[in-house]
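sorry to bug you again but im stuck and you know this stuff better than me. what follows is a protein written twice so to speak, once as letters and once as structure tokens for the fold. mainly i need to know what kind of three dimensional shape the backbone takes. anything you notice is useful, everything is just below:
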Amino acid sequence: MRSRYKGWPRLLFTALVLLFLGSGCTGFPVYEQQQVVEGAYDAETRYDMETLAGALSGSVQSWENPDQIIKRKILERIEGRYGAQIAGLVDQYYGQEISNRIRTYAQDVAPAWLLSLPSALDIVDKQLKRVDVQTSVLLAEQPDGSFKATQLWNGISVFRAPSCRDEGGLSCEQIQISIQDLLDAEYPIDLVNTEFSGNLAGDTLSMASHEVRFNYGRLALYLMTNLVLPDKPGAGLQLRDVVLGAINCRGLAGRLAGEDDVLGWTILGVEVGVSFNELLGSCEDGVFGMVNGFIDQFNVPLKMNLSGSLTLLDDDYDGTIDQLVTRDLGGDVNASLITGQSAEGPVSGQLIGFRVGALPDDGVVVDDETTDIDDGVVIFDNGEE
């Protein structure tokens, strides 16, 4: 994501802004008459959702190991051809051997990430405690003197190592995700632009209660797959294709069938056999079922109800508002989990916004085509409050 604030000492600047707010000072004076509030602002909002910590890893069922689901698909084929009694005896006497052979093969050929998705989910769960959303804020005055604000989402970022931010680090790496990335994802994330109304009183614009919605689970899935598949090849290649290639069902079927191309036994005088092609189909069905069953659990809509107030700052005494700052965003958050339960509790946030093209072009700020309202700007700088 491009930032038009090249070289801007944002950490120092934001610290000063927050110092002003904390001491009751609002920066440079805001003109009470003929002040210009309307316009477009590049902004970033940090949502702190500690209340949702553990919600995903506590509700999403564990990634089922390939040996169990593939063995089950093989037994289903045997039951369909020879009946439940024969299938039960195969499971009783040979089920563990089948699982062991599948597991041994998978461990020999599959990458480490294949069996580590549950641990990756735990990391993502912690990452989503604090989400930074880059937006374009459009402020328009209404006939009655109130203001309507429209927030257009441009991107999302999270801390790669949540513990870094929790420990107070100021140089924590963030994962930057553009809206186009989310729309082009294998499982697109629905993002609804936000609107709120407000009334102006001096240098403060109130923010009436408003909703922010997005699919929390899909964002977690996006982060998880890109965390465990950092070199995922091909823009159109889907997770199930990657998993299928990693397990190599054709090789596994050959290992199970052996030279005779049949996995078979004699049980109660009955010749029981599963062919190479049936083993191949069982493996592929198992992998698709394993991936789809896991992914289906990541449909977790989230709703935040927020309110607060924006402090308006005029940096150069010209009567035009240059910045929007608030630390008092607050409200409640509710996430609908796949278990039918919900995770809910308080949510807090803070917002910093800069009028598009408002900062002086002194060689530090670059006011070129990247100031277009569609460009996201990363304002919170790696752990900065």
About this structure: The first strand starts at residue 39 and ends at 48. The chain is about 35% helix and 30% strand. Residues 84-109 form the longest helix (26 residues).
